[in-house]
Amino acid sequence: MLHIHLDTTTTAHKTLNRSNLNLSTFHEKHDTPATSPKEDISDKWREFHGSSDWQNLLDPLHPSLRREIVKYGEFAQATYDAFDFDPFSEYCGSCKYNRRKLFEKLGLTKNGYNVTKYVHAMSHIDLPQWLEKSHLVETWSKDSNWMGFVAVSDDQESRRIGRRDIVVSWRGTVAPSEWYDNMQRKLEPIGQGDARVEHGFLSIYTSKSCTTRYNKTSASEQVMAEIKKLVKFYENNGEQVSLTITGHSLGGALALINAYESAKNFPGLPISVVSFAAPRVGNIAFRDELYQMGVKTLRVTSKQDVVPRMPGFVLNESLQRFDDITGTLEWIYTHVGVELKLDVRSSPYLKKGLNLVGFHMLETYLHLVDGFHSSESGFRVEARRDVALVNKECDMLVDELRIPHSWYQSANKGLIQNHHGRWVKPVRDPEDVPSPTAVDSRAGGVLELEYV
Amino acid sequence: MLHIHLDTTTTAHKTLNRSNLNLSTFHEKHDTPATSPKEDISDKWREFHGSSDWQNLLDPLHPSLRREIVKYGEFAQATYDAFDFDPFSEYCGSCKYNRRKLFEKLGLTKNGYNVTKYVHAMSHIDLPQWLEKSHLVETWSKDSNWMGFVAVSDDQESRRIGRRDIVVSWRGTVAPSEWYDNMQRKLEPIGQGDARVEHGFLSIYTSKSCTTRYNKTSASEQVMAEIKKLVKFYENNGEQVSLTITGHSLGGALALINAYESAKNFPGLPISVVSFAAPRVGNIAFRDELYQMGVKTLRVTSKQDVVPRMPGFVLNESLQRFDDITGTLEWIYTHVGVELKLDVRSSPYLKKGLNLVGFHMLETYLHLVDGFHSSESGFRVEARRDVALVNKECDMLVDELRIPHSWYQSANKGLIQNHHGRWVKPVRDPEDVPSPTAVDSRAGGVLELEYV
């Protein structure tokens, strides 16, 4: 523990605030690596995984834990960055890349994990702005949405972090809006006791239909089967295994439900949740059962973001304000775990005006985690994560940085010029075309392209 | 004339309307050239250039004239496509490419012209939404905007069109809005007689200041000097020369003022204006002087676009409607020349709902010109221009075509990843960095990069 203590105090005085934001420093940073050197945490991994509820690690935040939080956050961000949102795409609602290419395409191979499985959920559920449907008649699937993935640490990363880490990353939704509160009205039982969780989340997690291509099994069944396979394989191999479940916003809610089910199915497996900007999802009995089963939850929130206060808040987007409409819901729906609370005002790079979407974006969170030293201090001078990422899908960076807002976009929205000079939608790379089965089980056993 | 007559009747029956829009035909078209074969018009060029006020060439529209109109329209479109609109760019308000690369970058080398000069105008003039200013302190110029270019037909094109054609293309503004009408209040004298034109246009055209880099001379002086140089050069070479001035929207207004001044300076030079969606610009005396000097104007308008009805209309953008506020202005400001009137409803590819911006966009006009056969008939089946271009900066194409709206955009708004993986603004290619002089006239005569 001495080592931990030393780590955090040495950086205590080097912080930035608005008044000392030096733009030339920002621009000089362009020529420095965007990540800090990795440290071996193999002898302390259980603490970083939450075995002691992250006691004495959060305020000030331990540098190695910060790195782990950002790592899981980047896995959650990947579910947005690779999602096909184009309603005119025949693959709308799928992942743009197959699982073997995902991390490479998003620059995440540095994290040392491999995706082993894609997860899909039914999209007929009435949750506007979360589940995308193509406007076209002929599509890869009329019923399903890509909801995330299961990944596992490679040998090198496993050595560094002291165990084989299985990650489940759940896609959330970008914009909090009025519909969210409308949905938050119905609790439904989960498990055998009194535990109850919000109906809409559970429905996404458990729905299936034999008439679909991608949801003959539910998201729950897909994930459980994959975890089971991986746990069995690595435990048979004599390895220590852990499970870490992550998600942003509504994806954080799914992460918690997923952790609950995992704890039921894999007693003894160290399970933790790292959620960002997640709303409350279940009742007190749900929380207590999670505690009893030893599930550890690190809930990253920000003072300015309203979603972690949901349900119980109505967000009026047209008026750009929110109101506390009911004190009752706050008692019915209960938060779980330990909170790491960020503050938009701590970063000299961020605009301070009300920006409900910007406050909620995962990239904003990751920036604030990167700059967080303690609740008492300003933004870390040593923060190395690329600040420009914050503006990928919103307008949060101060103008002086000259980073355009919402810059994450394809050239010409993906249209390309054919040999006649006409602008056309390209055909998707065959290996990225969704296909429900990796292996054709019929005669011949032809290997299909492994989208999932 | 017989040839002309034959050309137009052969296509009379092959037209499309909404009910027979066949999407598979549209998609089959992807495999056909986007341009029609060029025809030699060297023996009829004066008629196509307006010598007889385009009599008997407009309804039905002669195919060769259609091609010429589209050619000039593409030159006008180039002033939008290459303009740096980014307020965070240190080159905001300039052209993104130097004059030697412009047509190549925009796929316009097919038209057979070379840019000989860029034109800049002062940007301090109070015309919001037209003149762009960088938010930055250090910029290529605090005072000037790129306003267009002078180009000249190459040898091959000159042979085809029967003369050496000098083109001046003026940049306009994309969105018509309320400010436009506010501006249209003050007529100012031009020339020695009673001719008067709108103050704001004339101000852009004539402003200069010795303290600027790009406007030590006015746009007027820059263009006049270039035309003079080119006319002299080619006439000394024994060639027939013509001048064609084009522009869209407010650029069409500048084109007319530019034509007036050119006619004063180059008596005997065949001068015509091809304007798109241009408002009225001057009084009756201005029009009459243009007629007396032999300036020919082809004014391309559309039934649904309100800008050609300005001034005299107030556009209430928030209510998405326009009102005729004064009958008087209509008499004070007078249209010039011959009108080719298009109809959005003629194209089966276009949405029919009210879209004030979409109706006004130059690409919408070019699409309608391409599909125009006569005022009585539907859209030409043989139209070859790429329909997808219509949606470059608006949302006018019917959903069935699956072309995203406003798709003309750079990957990641021009940000690129440096070797550390950080997203940064790239340094502009040195040869595209604006530089006011092509040749350093001081000792040594070092050749500078030729942006202008």
Automatic annotation (TrEMBL), chains A, B:
Residues 167-313 form the Fungal lipase-type domain. GO terms for molecular function: galactolipase activity; phospholipase A1 activity; phospholipase activity. GO terms for biological process: lipid catabolic process. Keywords: Chloroplast, Hydrolase, Lipid degradation, Lipid metabolism, Plastid, Transit peptide. It comes from the Eukaryota. Pfam families: Lipase_3 (PF01764). InterPro entries: AB_hydrolase_fold (IPR029058), Fungal_lipase-type (IPR002921). It is found in: Plastid, Chloroplast. GO terms for cellular component: chloroplast. CDD domains: Lipase_3 (cd00519). The keyword Chloroplast applies. Belongs to the AB hydrolase superfamily. Lipase family. This is Fungal lipase-type domain-containing protein.
